[in-house]
Amino acid sequence: MEKSVMDLMAAIREDFGLPETDIRTYSPLTLAYVGDAVYELVIRSLLTGKGNAQVSRLHKRASALVNAGAQAASLERIRGELTEEELHVFRRGRNANSATMARHAAMTDYRKATGFEALMGWLYLTGQTERLLTLVRLGLEEET
Questions:
Q1: Fewer CB within 10 Å: C terminus or N terminus of the chain?
Q2: pLDDT-derived band of residue 101, with 50, 70 and 90 as boundaries?
Q3: The domain that contains 80 carries what CATH number?
């Protein structure tokens, strides 16, 4: 696969002339903001990669996988596989003070999901695409 496809953020930086930034300066909620979108894109790509389907069915399946409860469960499945650095990123996201909360989620699930999304965002922004996909795969093992 072409390198620019494997590291989308690097391609975006290059094409749009964005400067390299120190990822350690990003707030955990910024990482979660990016991670939410990245995780959703991975899930949608997995679902559409299985073949053409009605959009309503795709949306229903994606919604079942991309919500606080499902993300918290995925985090629990991968927790033992995380490195110390990845655990640190997750904890920063989990402990971040968010002004909002999902309507249909327990607070503990919402916080774990925010930590999970922060980890996904950090992996994406640091170009660790292969690791991101490995963790998503492990997190989905019982789901797909």
A1: N
A2: low
A3: 1.10.1520.10
Residue 17 maps to a domain:
no
Number of domains in the chain: 1
**Cα 113 vs. chain centroid, distance in angstroms?**
9
Residue 75, token pair as written in the block: 């985090």
pLDDT tens digits for 3-35? Answer: 444 578 888 889 999 998 899 899 999 999 999
Parent domain of 43? 26-140
95 within domain boundaries: yes
**Residue 47 within any structural domain of the chain:** yes
Angle at 72 between CA 66 and CA 8, to 5 degrees: 50
Q: Which residues does the annotation mark as catalytic?
A: 36
- Rg of the chain over Cα atoms, rounded to whole angstroms, equals 15
CA 59 – CA 53 distance, rounded (Å):
10
Indicate left, alpha or beta for 114 from its phi (over 0: left) and psi (-120 to 50: alpha). alpha
Distance CA 40, CA 107 (A): 21
Rounded CA gap, 83 and 63, in Å?
28
pTM above 0.85, yes or no: yes
